[in-house]
């Protein structure tokens, strides 16, 4: 092999995609070993990594053209050896000048000093920190100041990161396109305003508050009042995801709803304070909306103004049906403990959305008011390809049998539905109607009952949810 031309060896390696095969091939000769190191652009390391300086230097020197590195210590225990520390990140930054994408997961010993070393990686555009408890705002700021081209920042369970200068700095830099903040206790909804008027390039915003700390957050009213008077230019926002957020009427995050002209995907999960007028304003502005996820909270105990209705109603669905001519995916869910009398949406308006818009995927969770008549009405949904029913207890075998008459449905998913049995699936056996049937935790459907009901079948039974 050593006698073959370098170009031929290079072409051989290019055609091998599996890392395990490339590793084996690199051991056959020195030339392949060297070239495999030069070609490698992605490396994932973690438990078992030799963290001695000489070993790390040798490792990163060999893979000097790395563009993406994942350092993952999920499930780490002390008996598995030492974790990569600040010194290790320094070695990484010195020997991998092409690094553009870095993920640190459960790296519990890395501190702000380590992030300051990464500031030397001038090409870094993507940084994802998942449970790095010793990192603070100072480390984020130092890295942002060094990495001028940072476009993606994900912070997940970074409990000691607060919103001080780093958000303001990223706002001034005007490079950020993808921001995800999840379960970071020290960062609240109002803190996002520190991005200032530099929302223009932001394409994706995902903000999730830790539900265990939702009631304990201190909210700066002055900050929220300032945001009320501030124009937020988010013309390029394509994805907006808010989870467990408190949305004050006309303030804070509510200001986004009337500005997202390019929005394609909306995800609102257990957000308290969202009103019909917010949804109406959003769908009138976002004519290209493709996906809507609405999970409605039951808890009304938070101190919001009682002059505004806290529950979305059919008015929102009417606006969606009228303005979202490109809508393809709809998910409607109610929180645990919901009863039919408290349902925000009527089945007729849910069906109106599906029948009016080109909806291909419909998921209903805890929508107790949806029944067999609703299933029959879905026969006129000409675009529907995937239907998911979760805890829709009013749907019975009679309603399930209408699926045979759905024009384009090929995927059916049932989960925790008490009213359906094996008898409801019998009409599908041998019909070749469904490409996929998924049944999970439905007590009256057996593994035998799903056999032959679709070309591909997935079955799971765990009834602990009923206890």
From TrEMBL:
GO cellular component: SCF ubiquitin ligase complex
GO biological process: SCF-dependent proteasomal ubiquitin-dependent protein catabolic process
Gene3D superfamilies, per database record: 1.20.1280.50, Ribonuclease Inhibitor (3.80.10.10)
Protein name (Swiss-Prot/TrEMBL): F-box/LRR-repeat protein 14
């Amino acid at each position: 092999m050593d006698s073959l031309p370098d170009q031929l060896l290079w072409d051989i390696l290019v055609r091998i995609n599996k890392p395990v095969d490339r590793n084996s091939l690199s051991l056959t000769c020195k030339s392949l070993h060297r070239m495999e190191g030069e070609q490698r652009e992605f490396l994932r390391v973690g438990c078992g990594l030799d963290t001695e300086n000489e070993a790390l230097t040798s490792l990163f020197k060999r893979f000097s053209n790395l563009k993406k590195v994942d350092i993952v210590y999920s499930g780490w225990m002390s008996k598995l050896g030492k974790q990569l520390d600040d010194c290790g990140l320094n070695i990484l930054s010195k020997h991998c000048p092409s690094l553009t994408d870095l993920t640190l997961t459960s790296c519990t010993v890395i501190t702000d000093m380590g992030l300051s070393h990464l500031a030397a990686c001038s090409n870094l555009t993507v940084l994802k920190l998942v449970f790095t408890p010793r990192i603070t705002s100072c480390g984020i700021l130092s890295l942002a100041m060094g990495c001028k081209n940072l476009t993606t920042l994900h912070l997940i369970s970074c409990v000691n990161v607060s919103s001080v200068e780093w958000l303001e700095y990223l706002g001034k830099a005007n490079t950020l396109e993808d921001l995800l903040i999840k379960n970071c206790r020290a960062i609240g909804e109002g803190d996002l305003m520190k991005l200032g008027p530099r929302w223009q390039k932001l394409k994706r915003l995902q903000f999730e508050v830790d539900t265990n700390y939702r009631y304990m957050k201190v909210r700066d009213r002055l900050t929220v009042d300032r945001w009320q008077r501030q124009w937020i230019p988010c013309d390029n926002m394509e994805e907006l995801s808010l989870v467990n957020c408190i949305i004050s009427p006309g303030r804070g995050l509510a200001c986004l709803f009337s500005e997202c002209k390019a929005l394609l995907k909306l995800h609102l999960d257990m957000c308290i304070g969202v009103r019909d007028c917010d949804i109406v304003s959003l769908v009138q502005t976002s004519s290209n909306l493709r996906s809507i996820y609405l999970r409605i909270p039951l808890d009304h105990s938070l101190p919001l103004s009682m002059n505004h209705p806290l529950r979305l109603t059919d008015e929102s669905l009417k606006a969606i049906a009228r303005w979202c001519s490109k809508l393809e995916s709809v998910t409607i869910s109610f929180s645990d403990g919901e009863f039919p009398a408290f349902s925000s949406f009527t089945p007729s308006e849910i069906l109106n959305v599906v029948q009016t818009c080109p909806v291909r995927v419909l998921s209903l969770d805890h929508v107790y008011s949806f029944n067999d008549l609703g299933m029959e009405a879905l026969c006129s949904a000409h675009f529907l390809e995937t239907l998911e029913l979760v805890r829709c207890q009013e749907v019975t075998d009679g309603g399930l049998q209408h699926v045979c008459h759905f024009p384009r449905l090929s995927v059916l998913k049932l989960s925790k539905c008490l009213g359906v049995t094996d008898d409801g699936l019998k009409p599908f056996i041998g019909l070749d109607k469904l490409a996929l049937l998924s049944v999970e935790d439905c007590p009256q459907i057996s593994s035998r009952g799903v056999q032959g009901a679709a070309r591909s079948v997935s079955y799971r039974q765990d009834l602990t949810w009923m206890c």
